[in-house]
From TrEMBL:
Pfam families linked to this entry: CtaG_Cox11
Record's protein name: Cytochrome c oxidase assembly protein COX11, mitochondrial
General function of this protein: Exerts its effect at some terminal stage of cytochrome c oxidase synthesis, probably by being involved in the insertion of the copper B into subunit I.
Entry's localization field: Mitochondrion inner membrane
Keywords tagged on the record: Membrane, Transmembrane, Transmembrane helix
Membrane-crossing segments per the record: 38-60
Subunit structure: Interacts with CNNM4/ACDP4. Interacts with RANBP2.
Entries under InterPro entries matching the protein: CtaG/Cox11_dom_sf, Cyt_c_oxidase_assmbl_CtaG
GO molecular function: copper ion binding
HAMAP family the UniProt entry points to: CtaG
Membrane topology: Single-pass membrane protein
GO cellular component: mitochondrial inner membrane
Length: 249
């Protein structure tokens, strides 16, 4: 019995202290630890990316509204200036309105007026209307742009519906206001000396987990360019029609 006991202890000591066995065990534990660390890192990155995806829209909104980036008009925060600013009577600006939706958005969206005339230093109110013709609720979110983009610094929105989610139930229609003014300093900017026409364009997207707003760095993704082209073509056709009528007369 003592012989078997001694022999078992020796063999057990051999397996415990064998360099080959110890090396294999260390490799296994090291690999397990590295794999676990990798899983933790990947999980952490996934959580961070998910959080950034939700934070992108408000961050983009703050960036654009603070800097007038990409032709995005500013939010009016100086209420004292609004109360004391003086209207520039000898300057009249035509503001045209455009509404777009991508093919994936099932809403009907349009401005209630084609254009209004406003002087710098004067407040103005415009409306857009959105309608959900489907049999299911749809949540939408909008972006906006102003052309020419140099004028965005002077175009201030007191109230609007941009970057806020709007839910429309089946068959529901809603009017969406835009309350704005053009800063009186508009007339002192030499780059805008010949500018008398502005185009305010809104685009509604269906909100959801897979929502990807168009990149502001890609000109092809700016619906405003297409909208401006559409207005220019419309005015050319109108001008040609008037010329034809005058020629006949």
């Amino acid at each position: 019995n003592n012989f078997f006991k001694i022999n078992f202890q020796q063999n057990n000591a051999y397996f415990s202290s064998s360099p080959k066995q110890s090396s294999w065990l260390q490799r296994f534990l090291s690999k397990f630890e590295s794999d676990s660390t990798a899983i933790y890192y990947i999980s952490g990155i996934a959580i961070i990316m998910l959080g950034l995806s939700f934070a992108f829209i408000p961050f983009f909104r703050i960036l654009c509204e603070t800097t007038s980036f990409n032709g995005v008009a500013q939010i009016a925060r100086n209420l004292n200036k609004i109360a004391t600013m003086e209207k520039v009577d000898d300057c009249l600006i035509r503001v045209q309105f455009n509404a777009d939706v991508p093919s994936s958005m099932q809403w009907k969206f349009k401005p209630l007026q084609d254009e209004i005339y406003v002087s710098p230093g004067e407040t103005a109110l415009a409306f857009f209307t959105a309608y959900n013709p489907t049999n299911k609720p749809i949540v939408g979110i909008s972006t906006y742009n102003l052309s020419p983009f140099q004028a965005a610094y002077y175009f201030n929105k007191i109230q609007c519906f941009c970057f806020d989610e709007q839910i429309l139930n089946p068959g529901e229609e809603v009017d969406l206001p835009v309350f704005f003014y053009i800063d009186p300093d508009f007339v002192n900017d030499p780059l805008l000396e010949d500018v008398t026409n502005l185009l305010l364009s809104y685009t509604f997207f269906e909100s959801g987990a897979n929502l990807k707003l168009p990149s502001p760095f890609d000109p092809d993704n700016r619906p405003l360019n297409k909208s401006l082209q559409k207005f220019e073509e419309k005015e050319k056709k109108t001008g040609s029609l008037l010329e034809s009528v005058n020629a006949i007369a």
